[in-house]
């Protein structure tokens, strides 16, 4: 039996159609991605295509890895030379070789969204604009939208002048200045990566032809979410050979806010006139009930291509629906449900995914996981690389690697504190502007800036420190360079002196994690370099840290869940105002609500066997507590598909502690528009009669929080590569001894445990009770 026999006839047709443009349009779980991987195998094995000539574009690095892995299993050899990557990393690789044609240096820096905002604030200041009128975030979005639509600053200015609107003209000026600054920092933002590649292709026929010849077979997954500039990129590359296969589902287009352009699907056939269109109709992922629920919801969108999707998996169990008093109860119940199922041996943690609309919702789930000791992995949220200490050290590395990145240099100039203030920074900046120097070059000329006075000496010593690191960078591997930076710069010392014990510990753990990431990079890269490491870091979206093999429950936003599948899905926060969002409900543009509905469709269709929908009656968003109706999307699912039918119940309400019960009770009764009988009934166990009021959830037990030894971000591979926590060979105190801690004062040692990397010591402090800590941090003194 060949691998192609595992495909249905329509999927086979798509796999065997190798030459000429091909558009596969099909609903969720119909095997689009599977077709792509088999198609790659077929090209290599049956058509003798050189793997080197194949390019597959995926939406995330994670998806790229997975695709490579799957292809690896299908083809015996050569899969490593297939170019499987995201749009962004593809463009970086191209630009690193050729961007000098556009007047940039090939060791350019990539700015993330935080850097963009910082730069934008500088631009607004330089143009003397009121930051209240021109908000940095809004301006970054405006620039990004323009770039995604391939509108240059000049073009934006022309359009603005035609409207004669002052604000639009100002925005165009901001855009132009922002680009100018990026260029003088030798930096590109994420959108630039694509824009500059397209520019390069357009301006340099030779480069374009080289890549056209190289990528004779191009495949794009999640095509519905490509934006204009991405479409241009593909279109240019595929123009010569026309061997382009794109797969997508218009019902899963969820990135309009990033410029995703649904007309790319419609334009495809115009752009490539001989396109073969294939539709897949059998869903292999979900049960019939789950699929029906998804279809019923998406049916409410107008102007979509009607699709038939069926499965032979059988009806499966009904979709569960539960409503809770508030977000904490919701999280608590979901986590308890998972725990119960895992303990009963019905599934493992990694089979369960909690999906939500906004990152802010993750906190309650995290807390519940922590307090019940449920291992979890949070995808999205505060990205590891967005953490302060990580950004600081990366800024050091960038400065060492490429002094042209002004933002990086400014970030660390006074970190740790060197007594160099904002006034000095302003003077150096002015000097840099005047002499058209980078900020770092101006620092090097500090002695010539008379106004600096004494600060010049401090700046000199900073520059010297960087120079020493630069020399080290020539012979030290990246992870050792990081260690050196931490120690020599005084960063670690300051961290310990200023931060609270627990915070410092957490930060050190994160830094350790960065060191292990660098070591991992060195192990896996062919020719590891500092620039290479920084590049990899810049491209890693958080979704990429999702390691399917680790047994942890998954917490992620709906956007992050695209393309993935899980046996059990909890789709949470199904409330009008949260999902769909207020913005989309109140928007004049009906398509905003439709985009939310597509997101709901994406969420439902991630589930293979079990789907649970949850909602809270009270939800606190950004400090404001609101009383929300059950999501209209939930109401679009026919009751017969839900386990609670018309008798949907929620927990009995027992009042509030703030004396506003009456008012809220009244509001509460208005929820019955959903046909919800206000019966008693409850959580997943369905135990009736439980009744309670709002709870205040304090910080979970300190040991669970304070001791991240089972930290979800520390992979086993980091053990042995650590340096910050140096295990003491022996402790000069033992259980029962009285010891003193610099912050917590005197206490009695209750327990000492060997925690591999370090000793974990539990002390009962006279002033603040029991705390556990790592011995090497705690620096306890016997008294
Ligand atoms: N012919 C088939 N036989 C058995 N299993 C299949 C077949 N086709 C697809 N599958 C399985 O169905 C599931 C969904 O497939 P896949 O992820 O490729 O769908 P998709 O169309 O890309 O979904 P999405 O729209 O969510 O990205 C996978 O587990 C896949 O292995
Ligand atoms: Mg897919």
Automatic annotation (TrEMBL):
E.C. number(s) listed in UniProt: 5.6.2.4
The keyword ATP-binding appears for this protein: yes
GO cellular component, one term: DNA helicase complex
Top-level taxon of the source organism: Bacteria
Broadest EC class assigned to this enzyme: isomerase
Pfam families per UniProt: PcrA_UvrD_tudor, UvrD-helicase, UvrD_C
Domain spans labelled UvrD-like helicase C-terminal: 288-563
Keyword rRNA processing attributed: no
Family of this protein: Belongs to the helicase family. UvrD subfamily.
Protein name: ATP-dependent DNA helicase
Organism field: Cuneatibacter caecimuris
Organism lineage string: Bacteria, Bacillati, Bacillota, Clostridia, Lachnospirales
């Amino acid at each position: 039996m060949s691998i192609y026999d595992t495909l249905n006839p329509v999927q086979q047709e798509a796999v065997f159609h190798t030459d000429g443009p091909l558009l596969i349009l099909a609903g969720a779980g119909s095997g689009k991605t599977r077709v792509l991987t088999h198609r790659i195998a077929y090209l290599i094995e049956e058509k003798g295509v050189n793997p080197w000539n194949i390019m597959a574009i995926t939406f995330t690095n994670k998806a790229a890895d997975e695709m490579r892995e799957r292809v690896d299993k299908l083809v015996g050899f050569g899969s490593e030379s297939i170019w499987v990557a995201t749009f962004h990393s593809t463009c970086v690789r191209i630009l690193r070789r050729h961007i000098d044609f556009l007047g940039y240096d090939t060791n350019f820096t990539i700015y993330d969204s935080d850097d963009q905002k910082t730069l934008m604030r500088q631009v607004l200041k330089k143009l003397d604009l009121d930051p209240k009128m021109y908000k940095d975030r809004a301006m970054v979005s405006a620039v990004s939208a323009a770039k995604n639509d391939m509108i240059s600053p000049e073009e934006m200015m022309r359009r603005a002048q035609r409207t004669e609107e002052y604000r639009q003209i100002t925005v165009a000026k901001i855009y132009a200045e922002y680009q100018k600054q990026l260029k003088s920092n030798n930096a590109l933002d994420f959108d630039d990566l694509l824009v500059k590649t397209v520019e390069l292709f357009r301006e340099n026929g030779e480069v374009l032809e080289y890549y056209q010849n190289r990528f004779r077979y191009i495949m794009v997954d999640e095509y519905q979410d490509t934006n204009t500039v991405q479409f241009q990129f593909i279109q240019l590359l595929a123009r010569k050979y026309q061997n382009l296969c794109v797969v997508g589902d218009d019902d899963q287009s969820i990135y309009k806010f990033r410029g995703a352009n649904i007309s790319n699907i419609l334009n495809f056939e115009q752009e490539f006139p001989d396109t073969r269109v294939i539709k897949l109709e059998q869903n292999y992922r979900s049960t019939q009930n789950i699929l029906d629920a998804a279809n019923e919801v998406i049916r409410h969108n107008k102007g979509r291509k009607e699709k038939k999707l069926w499965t032979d998996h059988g009806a499966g169990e009904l979709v569960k629906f539960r409503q809770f008093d508030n977000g904490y109860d919701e999280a608590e119940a979901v986590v308890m449900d998972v725990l119960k199922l895992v303990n009963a041996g019905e599934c493992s943690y990694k089979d369960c995914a909690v999906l939500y609309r906004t990152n802010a919702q993750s906190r309650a789930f995290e807390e519940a996981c922590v307090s019940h000791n449920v291992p979890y992995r949070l995808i999205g949220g505060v990205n590891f690389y967005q953490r302060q200490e990580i950004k600081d050290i990366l800024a050091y590395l960038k400065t060492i690697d490429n002094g042209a990145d002004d933002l990086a240099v400014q970030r660390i100039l006074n970190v740790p504190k060197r007594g160099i203030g904002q006034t000095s920074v302003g003077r150096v900046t002015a000097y840099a502007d005047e002499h058209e120097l980078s900020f770092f070059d101006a620092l090097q000329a500090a002695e010539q800036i008379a106004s600096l006075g004494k600060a010049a000496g401090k700046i000199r010593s900073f520059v010297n420190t960087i120079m020493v690191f630069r020399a080290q960078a020539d012979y030290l591997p990246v992870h050792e360079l990081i260690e050196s930076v931490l120690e020599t710069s005084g960063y670690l010392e300051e961290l310990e002196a200023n931060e609270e014990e627990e915070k410092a510990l957490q930060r050190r753990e994160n830094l350790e994690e960065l060191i292990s990431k660098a070591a991992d990079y060195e192990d896996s890269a062919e020719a590891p370099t500092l620039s290479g490491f920084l590049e990899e870091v810049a491209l890693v979206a958080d979704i990429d840290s999702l390691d399917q093999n680790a047994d942890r429950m998954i917490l992620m936003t709906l956007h992050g869940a695209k393309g993935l599948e899980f046996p059990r899905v909890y789709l949470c926060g199904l409330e009008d105002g949260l999902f769909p969002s207020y913005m989309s409900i109140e928007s004049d543009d009906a398509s905003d609500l439709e985009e939310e509905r597509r997101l709901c469709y994406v969420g439902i269709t991630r589930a293979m066997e079990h789907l649970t929908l949850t909602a809270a009656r009270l939800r606190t968003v950004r400090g404001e507590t609101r009383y929300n109706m059950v999501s209209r999307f939930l109401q679009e699912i026919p009751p017969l598909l839900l386990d609670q039918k018309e008798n949907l119940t929620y927990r009995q309400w027992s009042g509030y502690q703030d004396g506003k019960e009456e008012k809220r009770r009244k509001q509460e009764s208005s929820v019955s528009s959903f046909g919800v009988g206000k019966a008693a009934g409850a959580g997943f166990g369905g135990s009736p009669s439980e009744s309670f009021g709002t709870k205040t959830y304090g910080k979970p037990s300190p040991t669970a929080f304070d001791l991240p030894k089972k930290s979800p971000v520390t992979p086993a591979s980091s053990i042995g590569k650590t340096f910050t926590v140096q295990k003491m060979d022996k402790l000069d105190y033992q259980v029962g001894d009285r010891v003193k801690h610099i912050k917590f004062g005197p206490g009695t040692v209750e327990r000492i445990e060997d925690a591999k990397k370090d000793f974990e010591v539990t002390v009962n402090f006279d002033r603040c009770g029991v705390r556990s800590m790592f011995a090497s941090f705690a620096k306890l003194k016997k008294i």
